[in-house]
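Lab meeting prep.
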Amino acid sequence: MATSWVERRLAAILAADVVSYSRLVEQDEAETLSALKALRREVVDPLLAEHHGRIVKLMGDGALAEFGSVVDAVACAVAVQKAVAAKQVDAPTER
């Protein structure tokens, strides 16, 4: 019987999604999609790179990112939360 080689590695996975995405898309789809793209480009992607992570799957308003370290994954999650909160300070409460 032939044996197949399976590569295994340890990884930390960060799962994220946008709060109230369905409501936001219903209110203004074009603006919501534009804002989500900008947020990914300006905040998420640079922080992923800084914390040695990479997107492994995008699902509408959700994403899965892989990190080689739990410490990097948690640090990235906290940094993204803080950066998004800072960007949303002046946003209307319904957005």
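Slide two material, second protein:
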Amino acid sequence: MSKKNQFALLLTRRFLPLFLTQFLGAFNDNFFKSSLLMLITFRLADSVGMDSRILVNVAAGVFILPFFLLSAPAGELADRYDRSRYMQAVKLAEIVAMALAALGFYLRNLWFLLVVLFLMGAQSTFFSPAKYSILPQHLEEDELIAGNGLIQMGTYLAILTGTIFGGISILRPNGELIVSVTVVLIATLGWLCSFYIPPTQPIDPNRRVTPNFIRATAQIVLDVVPRREIFWPIISISWFWLVGATFLAQFPTYTRLVLGADEQVATLFMAIFSVGIGLGSIACDTILKGKISNRYVPAAAAGIAVAGMLLYFVSLRPPLAPEAPVIGIWTFLRSPANLSIVMTLLFIAFCGGLYIVPLYATIQNRTESERMADVIACTNVVDSLFMALSALFSGLLIAAGMDIPQLFLFVSFLTAVAAAFVRRQVRREEREEKRVEG
């Protein structure tokens, strides 16, 4: 793979259908979620007499909840069946969920739509273990970095475009109809793409699904924790999701209250973050030449930390006057100080892509095929926990008087600690490899 262009994978049947299936699924998740959040903020919250800020956070929690509750059975089912057939079933369920979403938009029933959002979170929960565990079955070892890089690039591009177009579409005339048709159409396209994913042998056709989901989820995590060579990459990945969730969640408020800019600038920041992670992800294969190695992960973590600290300093400016006009994107970009913010965010995101891709490939390479789906399920559980902690502690710190640039600085200091942890793990493994070779 080191002598090939990693994009050549997109011309193969063993990768392209999976890439398209996961891209369309991630796009649909975020298109629907963004549409619903905009509808809640501008229309549905008033109709039920509730604060839109509370409902938006409730919706975010509803989408994450299935990752806590259903990751264990998702991993068990991914081992029990041919993963390509299993993904076809999951994508068919997505069509049903999106048809229910169309009904919810027609009825303008908030609570019904929140149930559908939970179903979409469940669909993503069941899809994820199969998506990541099928990669080592279809790719060679020296293709895993390239494959994971493309998957991460596609995921963030899907998140960006789905979020933007979902928010735009729902507020147009006949927005509910436009969104309803789109989500059903995208779900159908994803289902059709899944039929072209090459079949695999079931890992354990006799595996039973544990009825007690919560106990099974806890057991999956407890089984993985003692395996240090797998668990430290999982924790490191989850830290990335915590940092990313913290930054992305604060962009709208940071844009308006700190920079005095409009929603187009907030969208620009989301685009920069997504593009940066995508560029970092696809750069991994070139930098590592196809070899699965974590040697640059500590440097990438340090890059996130240092750039995050720099973001604090380039964000320092006098408090905005209450009557200060909101500036648009072109006025914002004319300022050299604001361009430094843009470049800093791009660098943080680029380092994030360099950081996360080798860690995913490491987990896949070190995990036995019969344990792969469980380990990915464990990763999803820990990721969700860290993202929930991000929302909780960000809210508490801001409520205690910390402003958003200070929050970015605090998270960056913690990331520096995480970088030291990752460096220690990588150096320990390098010493062990040398001892074995010697």
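Talking points for slide two:
The chain has two domains: 1-199, 223-438.
The two ends are 28 Å apart (CA to CA).
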